[in-house]
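Weekly puzzle thread! Below is a chain. First person to post its structure in token form gets bragging rights.
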Amino acid sequence: MAFLDSMSISASALTAERYRMDVVAENMANINTTRGADGEPYRRKYVVFAEREGSTNPFSSFFRRGTSGKGGVRVIETAEDQSEFKYDYNPTHPDADENGFVRMPNVEVVQEMLDMMSAYRAYEANVTAINTFKDMAVKTLEIGR
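Winning reply:
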């Protein structure tokens, strides 16, 4: 059943990387949000991954005898970046202070683009792995012909 374990590991990575892309998209969408529900500018978010131990499916644990039990990756937290807000001089902005400065979100476009490219490459690598597993299964089934 190691074949199915491999598929499950790559599938968990696809889910985690898709979520990471969602967080990057949220950061990019809020790059100019100066006032949230708490009155503060938007804070950049990032995803924390951890190894997913074993399987969450009790039926598959029956087949895990003799396997490593490794189960891929999972998202354990979506954290907020606590770095300082940026300041922009714009005295006409409604959120400007008495000196004309506006506190802006701590989102950097370059950092978000790097995170997006990294998530995309990881997603692409796991899709390739799943396709390879699928091709191996097809070749295995052709042995009996």
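Puzzle host: Confirmed. Bonus trivia for everyone else. DSSP finds three helices and four strands in the chain.
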